[in-house]
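Could you join me in thinking about how sequence relates to backbone shape in a protein? Label the sequence line and the structure token line clearly, so we can match residues to local backbone shapes. Once you have written the record down, we can walk along the chain together.
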Amino acid sequence: MKSLLFGRFLLLLPWVLIVIIVLDIDSSRPPPPALAPRGGGGSGGARPAAGRASPPQAPEAALPTIYAITPTYSRPVQKAELTRLANTFRQVARLHWILVEDAAARSELVSRFVAGAGLPCTHLHVPTPRRYKRPGLPRATEQRNAGLAWLRQRHQHLPPPQAGVLFFADDDNTYSLELFQEMRTTRKVSVWPVGLVGGRRYERPVVENGKVVGWYTGWRADRPFAIDMAGFAVSLQVILSHPKAVFKRRGSQPGMQESDFLKQITTVEELEPKANNCTKVLVWHTRTEKVNLANEPKYHLDTVSIEV
């Protein structure tokens, strides 16, 4: 009797093993994809979730390039401020950075910074003559003019119209990304408010019926253009059609460089108010606190050399 049962067990064992293997293979297969619901989709595919739909955007290649001219000079906070500015610029589509050092040659610090910044960047240098470094005289004149000269030289042989916008981006300011969206549609010269400037929380062009009619400012409201350097952008075509428009040294007073420059290319009546008719602050003249280096040793004592 035992031999009969053992024989039947051996006969059934292969079939039991086959069934177990088949069930194991079937359970390891991925589930079939869910069928898209039938509906009014033009392509017959599944509709995207309502919360994930993104608004149509213009192709990046179709956007006008923003050229940001930034004068810079050697000081303890230079790399820190350039880092902050680069972090902003990386988030702006089609931006070309023109970084101009106040120096007789390109410094190693800024050269290394530009190489690792991950931005389309042109690194220039021009020194400010010693006689113009006295307190009370306009600053960064030579550097801004060097940026303008590079821009004109690069585009002089290209046919018009050439889409682009020029913006003077000092490295001690803080910029909202919304500002670059606003300035990109500049037709000639656009303007907007600037925060923390002129001894006030903000300064701005006063706008009525879409036109600039005056200036809310804490210093010399009689200026032709009572505006900060960070408060305007200029169409590239305007820069190219006014090849002699530069920042002047002779006869220019501190705080008047913006007016002296803008008088050469536009009028107040032609200004284009941005930032909700100049009622939103999108750039701040923050400046970096003066660094306290009272404990810095006179001679380098560390065992390694660290670039700050």
